[in-house]
Design a protein that fits this description.
- The complex is a heterodimer of chains A (142) and B (135).
- Chain A is built from 3 helices and no strands.
- Chain A is an all-alpha fold and 142 residues long.
- The longest helix of chain A is centred in the middle third of the chain and has 108 residues.
- Chain B is an all-alpha fold and 135 residues long.
- Chain B has 4 helices and no strands.
- In chain B, helix 1 runs antiparallel to helix 2, helix 2 runs antiparallel to helix 3 and helix 3 packs antiparallel against helix 4.
- Chain B is elongated, with a radius of gyration of 17 Å.
- The chains are: A mainly alpha (142), B mainly alpha (135).
- The interface between A and B is medium-sized, with 22 and 24 residues.
Chain lengths: 142, 135
């Protein structure tokens, strides 16, 4: 083998070797790129999961505070309903007493033996069981 | 600015196909009695044909690779350089063993080598731009 053949073979080997090295690098890099992409994908998934967890935690905190507020409002509403029921009951008692009183007064007026004195006595005595303190107070004020 | 650019480069693809045919025929077919191949040393025939076959195959794969631009260009770059190696051996064989009858073929191979080197430089430049862009 003469020097020209050796020279051409060497130059050819340099180019072919460079090309082969490039191919090997590209193929190895491709595997690495796939692994990196997978890693990046996993990182992205973890980040998304963390963000979702943060959102969920914030939502749970909001929901808890809203639940506490709702419970408080419900307790207030129940208390107000009890108070309204109690006042209704008092009003019913007052109304019953007033009706009985008016019937007694009307009876006294319509009595054939009615006298002004008897009517005054019956009207001045008030209801037998007494009107509620509110009614009496109104009478006193009026 | 309008950039007119086809998806494939027909000349390059066809020359890569020619590399495969050239390499395969030199490796796997019986030469004619008065063929130049008969006058070449075996190592030269095998090396040149093998390199051309590898270059054509990887070059076509690289040119048609669509999944990752870097991989496609990298395969094409490797194929161009291997092709230069194979063509250098082939050109030398024409010059040395062609007895002056293969001047045309030698010129053709020389232009092919220059085209391969030119394309290799283009790819190297493009890959550099892509790496800079990707950071």
């Amino acid at each position: 083998m003469d020097w020209s053949t050796i020279t051409v073979a060497a130059i050819s080997a340099v180019f072919a070797g460079g090309g082969a090295a490039t191919l090997i690098t590209v193929l190895a890099r491709r595997k690495l790129t796939s692994a990196e992409a997978s890693e990046k994908l996993t990182d992205s998934a973890i980040q998304l999961l963390e963000a979702a967890k943060r959102d969920a935690r914030a939502d749970i905190t909001d929901l808890r505070s809203e639940l506490t507020e709702t419970r408080r409002e419900l307790a207030d509403a129940r208390r107000e309903a009890r108070e309204a029921g109690r006042q209704m009951s008092l009003l019913r008692e007052d109304a019953t007493a007033i009706v009985a009183y008016l019937e007694r007064v009307l009876g006294a007026i319509n009595d054939p033996n009615a006298t002004l004195e008897r009517v005054r006595i019956i009207a001045g005595g008030g209801p037998p069981n007494g009107v509620s303190s509110r009614l009496r107070r109104d009478q006193q004020l009026g | 600015m309008i950039v007119v650019f086809g998806r494939y480069r027909p000349h390059e693809l066809l020359f890569l196909l020619l590399s495969i045919l050239w390499g395969a025929s030199a490796l796997f077919t019986e030469p004619e009695p008065d063929d130049l191949v008969n006058r070449l040393p075996t190592w030269l025939t095998l090396s040149a044909a093998g390199l051309l076959l590898i270059s054509g195959t990887f070059g076509l794969v690289g040119c048609t690779w669509r999944r990752t631009v870097e991989v496609g260009l990298g395969l094409e770059l490797g194929a161009m350089l291997i092709g230069v190696g194979g063509l250098l051996l082939s050109g030398y064989a024409f010059l040395r063993y062609g007895n002056g009858e293969a001047a045309m073929s030698t010129g053709f191979v020389a232009i092919w080598i220059v085209a391969n080197l030119w394309r290799a430089l283009q790819i190297r430049h493009d890959l550099g731009n892509l790496r800079r862009k990707d950071g």
